[in-house]
Amino acid sequence: MLKMKRGDVLLIVVLVLLGSTWLFLRQVLESRETVDPATLRAEIQVDGESYRSVPLDVGEETIEIHSKYGNNTLKVFDGGIQMMYADCPRKISMQMGFISRPGETIICVPNRVYVEIVRSGAPGPDDNGVDAYIR
């Protein structure tokens, strides 16, 4: 059996402290960032194809998604979006909760539904950043 030496324990403690410090600082910096819901939208994709883009500054709105893979219901409210219903077996996407910050996602793998919060000025799924082609 392997015996841990003092240096091994010290290395593990230092790595755990560095990782914890990094996660704590990241959490603090992200919580201080203010995001205006008027600048955000939810990009909804079904089977990799753009389904709909929804601004998050609207009032309450319910979005029904019916595809050959299954049925989902999303609800837009309070500057964010949440999966309210999914007919997939495990319903993991419903457990992902309410999302309202850029980069947050909800994914329903069996129904192939992908929802991501993006800034309105950010390139969408159909925008590859190319302005023009020159021959």
The whole-number mean of residue pLDDT values reads: 88
- Counted by DSSP, the helix tally is 2
User: How are the strands of the biggest sheet laid out side by side?
Assistant: 2-1-7-6
Supply the helix-strand structural class.
alpha+beta
Spans of 5+ residues with little confidence (pLDDT < 50)?
Answer: none
Largest sheet: 4 strands, antiparallel
Order of H and E elements:
HEEEEEHEE
The backbone outline, from C-alpha atoms, is extended
Helix content: 10-25%
Gyration radius from CA atoms, angstroms: 21 Å
Number of strands: 7
What is the beta-strand fraction? 25-35%
Gap between N and C termini, in Å?
68 Å
What distinguishing features does this structure have?
single chain, 135 residues, alpha+beta, four-stranded antiparallel β-sheet, three-stranded antiparallel β-sheet, 2 helices, extended
